[in-house]
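Field guide to reading this record: the first block holds the primary sequence, the second block holds the structure written as discrete tokens, and the final block holds curator observations. Each block starts with its own label. This record concerns 5'-nucleotidase domain containing 2, catalogued under organism Sparus aurata.

BLOCK 1 — SEQUENCE
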Amino acid sequence: MKTNIRGTECYAPCSFKYSDLIPPGTCNLLNSSTIFANNEVNLAEVDIYGFDYDYTLALYSNALDTMIYNTARDFLIEHFKYPEGIRKYDYIPNFAARGLHYDIQKGLLMKIDAFHYIQSGTVYRGLSPMPDEEVLQLYGGTYHIPLQQDSGFYGKGPKVKQFMDIFSIPEMTLLAVANDFFITNDIPYDPVHLFRDVSEAIGMVHLKGYMYKWFILRGEETHAVLHRLVNNGKKLFLITNSPFSFVDKGMMHMVGKNWRDFFDVVIVQADKPHFFTDCIKPFRRLDGNGDLRWEKINSLDKGQIYKQGNLFDFLRLTGWRGSKVLYFGDHLYSDLADLMLRHGWRTAAIVPELEQETKVVCTDRYALNLTWLQALTGLMERMQTHRDPESKQVFREWQNEREELRAMIKNLFNPHFGSIFRTRHNPTYFSRHLCRFSDIYMTSLSCLLNYDLSYTFYPRRTPLQHEAPLWMDQLYAAQLPPQGKAFLL
Ligand SMILES: [Mg+2]
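BLOCK 2 — STRUCTURE
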């Protein structure tokens, strides 16, 4: 009798090191300063760099989430007259994660995979997980969320909304908390009203965003990126939904009072994603006091600030088209989707969560659990054809062990919802859209400082399902030490 990877007993000969099972060079070389490529991008061809502002040029610390949550919670109580008891709920860091879906009518937060299936164990009513049987009952015996209810193109379906904005993490937490309060106190309420009220309360916090500058991280790195691009003869522009006074305070904090000198065009309150699809709203110029001017805009001039407008006018007035433009944004739908699908600019996604997730992926614990999970799945694939009672019993035990391993891997990222990139074995809904709408993606803009401006990002050729050998095929087994082979028999 030997012990298995988790220290419990098994019948396999285990005199070899379990780390021998990890394929060489798998995970521990990952670095969160890397820029990852979904598509080939040659920076030498990029002459013009465009940026979103919030969570792209300006990265915020997690303390901002607490501030947004507290302010919105108090607004809910003071202006919408929600019960005072909600004030007892402090912000819960790392409860929610970006890319989750919320069933507006049922008041449920959940994680959905690339195939529109709810991941079991990740449905929360209030702050409590909902048993899988109850989920199945609520959704008519299936985990599948039909496309017509789902998030639509911009993450807002009629019944289910996807939270894609990083600002929405405190919003999800407040929704969960308020639902929890009503449920645990047995107070009847309509989840639809709650959803609208929380949305409005969070929106109100953004209007007070003048204090955000105190939460900005890595401002000097943003400054360095802009400086380097301009020094290399690149043109820069900014398209943000935030108002000028807000952006101005943050940029002065990061770059200095002459920050506008870096940019050839500055557009505020752009109303993305409509900026990229509608051709109705014309540009308007703001004067030095931030007041709107009334003249027709026939050119977009350096040093000026423009409000609203649309991409069609932008392209006509600048001539900045196609692959020579690279646009950076954190919102896959509002910033990147239309540019990728309709306009042919190159796109770069800012995904701050990569910093933490790559750290987890680099741990021995993750590598061991994942390797054993893969090996176990391969064993099950073979074992399923044996129909005798003893084999069936072993298969059931392996099934249970596989479930435990999956839960352990999920908990390494976030005990409630796991990784933002993967459900159990599939990419998440978020991950699939990240691959579809971004050419490259990275933790923060500062990653650009690690690359020469003529660098080409080549995507790795990852095998498609029909191209990959099955786990533990002869080829891989041949690489294992003899004890390892015995373990696999
Ligand atoms: Mg943003």
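BLOCK 3 — OBSERVATIONS
The first helix runs from residue 63 to 78.
The first strand starts at residue 2 and ends at 3.
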